Amino acid sequence: MSCCLIEFCRVQELKTVREFLFSGQQTSTLGTDFSQTEKELSWEDADWGSWEKDETKEDVKPEEESEKQSAPWLYDCVVSLSPCSDLLVIARKHKAVFLSAKWRTDEVGRDEMTLAVSWSGTLSTEDMERVTSAICIPLASQKRSSTGRPDWTCIVVGFSTGYVRFYTESGVLLLAQLLNEDSVLRLKCRTYEIPRHPGVTEQHEELSILYPTSLVTIDGFSLFQSLRACRNQVARAAAAGNDMVQPPPLAYKKWGLQDMNAIVDHSSVGIMTLCVFDQMRNASVLGGFHAAVKGSPPAMCQYITVGGGPFTGFYYAIEGSSQPLLSHVALAVASKLTSALFSAASGWLGWKHKHKHEEDPAQKQKPKVEPATPLAVRFGLPDSRRHGESICLSPCNTLAGVTDDFGRVTLLDVGRGIAIRMWKGYRDAQLGWVQVCEGRGEREKATSPSLPRRHAQFLVIYAPRRGILEVWGTQQGPRVGAFTVGKHCRLLYTGYRLMGVNSVTSQGWQLHTQQLCLLDPATGALRTVTVPFHLALSDKKSERAKDMHLLKRFNALLRSRGMEPDILESEAQSVLLEIKHPAIKKQALESLLSNKKAPVSCLINITRALLDSLKKQDPEAVDEILLQLCSSQLRLLQMYTDIMALHSAKPPPRGQDTDPTLTQQTACSGIDDDLARVGPVLQRYTELLSRPSVSFAQDPEGQFPVQSFLSQLEAEGGSLRVVRGQNTDWTQLGSFLFWGCLCGQSPPQKVCDMLQDTGISPQDLLALLLNVWLDREKEVLQNPQAVWHLHSLIAALSAMTGAVEDSWDLQCVSPWWQQVRTACVQSESAGAALLVALVSHRAAKNSITSLAEKKFQSDWEAVSLELEQWAVCVRQLEDLLALHTLLCLPGPRGTPGGALARCSVKALLESGTGGVADSVAKWVFRQDLKPALLKGILETRGAAEPRENPSEGEKNPEGASFQKAGELLVPVCQRFPVSLSPDILFAHCCWEYVVQWNKDPEEGRYLSWAVEHLKLIANPHIQLGISIMMWNTFIVNRFSAAAFLMEKVGKAPKDRLCRRDVGMGDGAMTSFLGSCTQLLQTLVEADAGIEEVPPPELCVEEVWMGAEGPASIAELALEQRSVHYPLVQHNCLLASLLHAAMAFGIRVKPLSLFDSKGRTAFFRDLTSIQLLPSGDMDPSFVSLRQEFLLKVLTAWVKTQVEGADPPPLCPGPPDNSWASLCLDLAPLLQVNPDVLRRHLVCQLYSHGLDLRAEEVALEVEDKDVLGSQLLVLTGQRLSYSLLHTQTRPGMELLARLPPTLCTWLKAMDPSELSCPSVSLSLTSRMVSRVIEILPENHAQYTLALHLLEAVDALGPEA
């Protein structure tokens, strides 16, 4: 109930704003403090006299004036804030930054508003022009459905050249006007306010612009309509692409302020009417005894200026004495002058956007400035040595605050024109006003409720020299608030609200605007001041004011440090009992109970004393709410102390208070059997869960704060209710109540009896117990005895009144046990949830058995729906525990990580039938299991070693981790035989890997393994559906981008182009194209096999039949339509060509190898029917295709000779994979395969691979052509041996050769051979092979015989 300084917004990126505005300057001194030589006074010990006798400048030292002060950077800027606090403008020189409001959610989940940069740039259009003033005017919406929020905000900026320009929030210039050639000093606005009394004159909206010698006022209604029209015209011009926007007319009044030496600030009070006495007095003073007086007083506009000579001037302009002036543009539009005149004037008005070098000389001339109407000062406050610095008008236009260079703040009575109060010691002060409305219920006892509510005004003074913000009551009120703030803040006071509002449109609006804000440049915080109305009451004996003083004293006592608890208790109790008002007393009690320093005994004693004092008072005068609060809080405090005493007592020795009854022994034996069954899995889960990890340390012995205890429990009548809060709060409260029992330090039965006496419902206690048990899973699993203590607690809670209904039907579900099952199935702590379910299952079974014995008196075992529910729940939790044990296994080092996937039974049921397989697939990806290894695990059911040999870099620890993964995966597969069938698991793994590849396309291994998983799917229906989904979702777009890129470049593109168009590097793109080929081939094979195998029937395990959620991957795969086989083969052909071109770097335009039909059919939906090429292809296309395949074979043979590994087509390819691929593609491309085989044979012989060439030569059909080609190769080899080696035996042999053969050898070019140096034995064998191939009647048969003789003759001599 006192003044508060509340932060409501925060400005972001202030450092960026400062760097932009001060770019190119030294900013090291921008944030320094004021250099102050005078003694700094704090607001506690300063002299706050209203008037001082000596008010001259003699107390200011000359050295202080000469000392240079480095002001903070925000003081060098023009700052303006919208009244709605949604737009902030910061400008300096020719630059400006606009910051708009944005909402975000903080860490707690609350929405908070921030101001972020929305526009920044240069506003000046002329040389040496700078911003001198700015103002943000929100414009009201004209829609009927508006609730008072502004439609948009106009930024009005004044410049040193005299221009006034209007901008939108995005920096778009709407209107520019030159009203005077001097610099603009101040811009101020007045908007419509609903009159509070019938006799108050209704004020019109107005924008006032102050120049050094003149004042311009613009009517608000005209300005509102003009700005709306300009904004609409700008929007239409931007949509049409036209820069010419015609402005609407703008009317204004211009007054020449006379009889003042200097003017620095002003305030427009508005229209006022003098009373008859004041009218006659003024007439007598000005006109004498015979002055004439009009029948009705004239309406006048009052203006107040501050400056020098006089210190304050009062001007009065009679309405109608000056006609509104229209700008030249308005006159031009009104009289419809020629377009030439409009073009000449449009440049300086800002309507024509041209660059400076494009402007005509005539357009650079400034427009004619309208003369001002002289206006003499009526009177003023003369003070020759005092100069005013600023004036701030109050919201009700009756008072004004003025600052001067003497460090004084003067309060003016606007109506009488006199100074009524003055404060000293406020150098460079900044002023603002806060108007507070009286509450609805504060005057209902004293006056009639029909009277208008009172309003109080408070003057806010910010003293930057001392860094304090003060709130003063007016007119002669005391200081009601003071806050210590920074020394570089800016107090932003608007003094207006929305423009465009009138008495009709404002009905029903609930617009909330900030009256003033304090901007702290150090933190960027925007804070506002809230003042209670009662602080304006002048009655010093008011009980409420006294109570507020006592409340402040009480809070100061609670904040004091080092005070003894006894002294604190006695003083706080005396102050609290002295407070009279119930609301303030309640506030003090709440402050006491929320104080973290006060001990519990102090809280109990003070609360008991307050309750006793209330009971001694008259029952009718006691506030019932306060009485109930005291009794309920005292009850909670007593409960807190009792629980603390019970937990701090020594635990009972073993054997006492722990003797189990026969029923408990039976239950314990059943629990033993259950624990023995789930023990191995639970032990392994505990080991994996307790591995080292990063966590925040918590003090286990730390006490639960009593403040948190009180905030989470509240009294309702005779019972207590747990307040629903965050999960962490429930854990703390549950730990406080039950953790001692779970650890064996407190007797469970006594704790439960005491909690039952407090009135807390058993359901709330059960929820707290389950919450702490499930939340502290690690600690629970490490304590084997905690299960028995949990059984005791659940049994004790179940025996409470209201827990299990006595009239419970065995064929119905008990709400008590259903609450336990709900908590278990919703928890992600699988181990702790299973233990709770086992214990509760046994407890429920014993309860049902005892109930059945009483009811039926039979030895038959009772069968109920409750036990069936428990059997299903326990089985689900056992399955979940096995799954969690698998998911907790950490991945090998260096493998892709990720957060630990935890889920609950409810999450698995809501994830659909594929939830389990999806979780295991994510685990497979995290473990980096190879597809073949996963297949081996599923086949061998946990074999020690995988079938395939480990790679060279694989070590024993990695193999051990894979073995452990197999040992954990097999039990999960046994528990989920249907959900984790091989086909389902491979399908989900395939999808997981392709999703991860899509996130990181550089990892081509992910896509390759996804295709491998796809190949392992046995059912062709699922395999076909997954292939189609992969192709349509992830592959086809990148595949088409790669094809178009290679078609555009005409060769294998570089890494930069691949990243730009396809989103991956050149190496990853090669692997991607290979995977595309494998995917399409798999799709073709699956499509061919769907007719032989019926579609599978998908189902889940019996206990998981209630799964509801999205369809699984397998279900979606079965819903896919069949594909068009020729279209798939057509795309597969293109993928093979792209892969080959990218792998060997061959220059080709792949799409140019097909005609228009073939190019059109690419990248279409595989299920659609497309028009494909048919018949014989154009020979030109066949020639290009043959040339491409020949290049591929040549490149592949080079890799065989150089010893480099060729680009693989698929995992583990044979050596002749690319050659086989080219021969397989030849028929599809209508290329003769025999040509490719002959080329391959020649290339192999040319590279010296004679043995492999002989194998391929056996398949050649046209032997004659092959023999001729090989004969040329033989001649090239022999020419190299005889002519290029130049050996003596060779020369002698060359001389003996026939002339025809010698001439033929000299014509051979050995440089065409890739490997000319070959042994003579291989050459001789090659010639023999040629002789075998060529028929005897062949034209070159004789030449071949001569070659054989030459080779045989050269062999022995060599």
UniProtKB/TrEMBL annotation:
Phylogenetic classification of the source organism: Eukaryota, Metazoa, Chordata, Craniata, Vertebrata
Claim: Acetylation is one of the keywords in the record: no
Subcellular location: Cytoplasm
Keyword entries, A-Z: Cytoplasm, GTPase activation
UniProt domain Rab3-GAP regulatory subunit N-terminal: residue ranges: 73-492
Species of the source: Paramormyrops kingsleyae
Residues of the Rab3GAP regulatory subunit C-terminal domain: 764-1335
Record flagged with keyword Manganese: no
UniProt GO cellular component terms: cytoplasm
Entry similarity comment: Belongs to the Rab3-GAP regulatory subunit family.
Name by which UniProt lists this protein: RAB3 GTPase activating protein subunit 2 (non-catalytic)
Alphabetized PANTHER family for the sequence: RAB3 GTPASE-ACTIVATING PROTEIN NON-CATALYTIC SUBUNIT, RAB3-GAP REGULATORY DOMAIN
GO MF term set: GTPase activator activity
Organism domain of life: Eukaryota
Database matches in InterPro entries: Rab3GAP2 (IPR026059), RAB3GAP2_C (IPR029257), RAB3GAP_N (IPR032839)
